[in-house]
Amino acid sequence: MRITQDDFVEEAKALGLAVHLTYADESVVMPALDTGAAAIVLVSGYHMTPRGQPHWVFVFGREDRFVLVHDPAASRDEHGRALAPETYAVPWPAFMRMTRCGRDHLGATILIRKGFPS
Fold it and tell me: Which CA distances in Å does 24 have to 50, 75, 85, 102?
């Protein structure tokens, strides 16, 4: 994940995108969602699918302490291939558990905001 993160940072900088590396906890994500931001988040497959494969989901808002998550590969066939998307309202504590992968509890969240960086 660290190699992938470094690669993402380099690609973003090459595109002229602002990059701010920080722990994406409630104090970062919830206010960002309140301002209309969205996020692409890596989730641990063990909380989402029987096969335990991590994958990316789209977070598009919140309602109180629930995060609104669109999972493009929620339903899978017996070979693990995506069949159908689903949208969930996930309580924040459960969402935080979903976003930590492996023994090191690594996570990846890409916040997407409209406009120019401040």
Answer: 26, 27, 24, 17
